[in-house]
Amino acid sequence: MILKFKEFYPKIDPSAWIAPSADLIGNIEIGEDSSVWFGCVIRSDINEVKIGKNTNIQDLSCIHTDTNSKTIIGNNVTVGHKVMLHGCIIEDNCLIGMSATILDNAVIGEGSIVGANSLVTAGKVFPPRSMIMGSPAKVVKQLSQEDVDKLIAHAARYVEYKNEYR
């Protein structure tokens, strides 16, 4: 379901794909070739949500904001199943593992991975190419360019998957 909130209606690029059971509410912008999968909720009634190009938000994920924190998701990002993103910034070419939670004003640097079930606490800022894991999350290693290239390729596969649903 795609709903207006006050004067805001989601802006979805025509090449993006939204699953019929996803709920998008309010001040949302979704870029070219991105996808939002089954059971997701993106509620932008307090602040804005921006999702870049070639980004996939997988099944059952929830995205929200706060008064002082927008949610910005870059290009070529994979947000795994059942992820919670709340008022955070995910830079380009990242993978957020299944059931991870990232809280207000946290920043995940470009080309990083957040491990499954990790908890990124409010205000935490991670540098580019970080492998981030745990609760609370911390950097466990730096990623190589080869690792980042694999993240970009993974996001590209989801562009192909969403095209099969058209």
Automatic annotation (TrEMBL):
SUPFAM superfamilies: Trimeric LpxA-like enzymes
InterPro entries assigned to the protein according to its UniProt record, in alphabetical order: Hexapep, LbH_gamma_CA-like, Transf_Hexapept/Carb_Anhydrase, Trimer_LpxA-like_sf
A Pfam family reported for this protein in Swiss-Prot or TrEMBL: Hexapep
Superkingdom in the source lineage: Bacteria
Name of this chain's protein: Gamma carbonic anhydrase family protein
Organism for this UniProt entry: Aliarcobacter butzleri
